[in-house]
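tool_call: predict_structure(chain=1)
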Amino acid sequence: MVAGKHRFGIDIDGTVTCPATLLPHINRQYNINMTIADVTEYDFLSGFPHPVDRQQFNLWFKENEPYMYQVSELAADAQAILTEWQKKYELYYISARGTNVFDVTKNWFAEFNVPYDHIELIGSHNKLEVAKKHRVEAFFEDKHDNAVQIAEELSIPVVLFDTPYNQKPVPTNVIRVSNWLEANEWICKNF
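tool_result:
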């Protein structure tokens, strides 16, 4: 840790990227018109208007993942806020993406000029051990169970970006925000 700098753990997909960024690709592939409001669980299949073979969907997703991540839409205000934060905080991105898309991910960060101190793609949604290893002091997430687990196990604040798929109750140290401006407000008051 850099002396005097707080270290933040930050998820990428649905947090730094717009939560709906993958939907146009899915809609085009399956000829549907799903919106983020349709996705009520952390599972795209929850938003489909008809049953879809999970294995087939997963194969399609894996095959198209590099391209979809390459063209992912940056969340509103994320770049400007993260650029300001890097002056005061260490930014550790911890993502469930696999290492197979590490180069695509780094190139995306460069293309959108998103600052980082460290990027770790763990290939799993279990971010607890990595967050613990890096001694992050706050975490930014969109996946409900990750937010709750990290908040409870590490006793740190977790900023949860509010979406239709993460509406279950949360402990008091999980702070719901609608966007990066609200996340920044909370950080400015508390760090």
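agent: The radius of gyration is 16 Å. Proceeding to next step.
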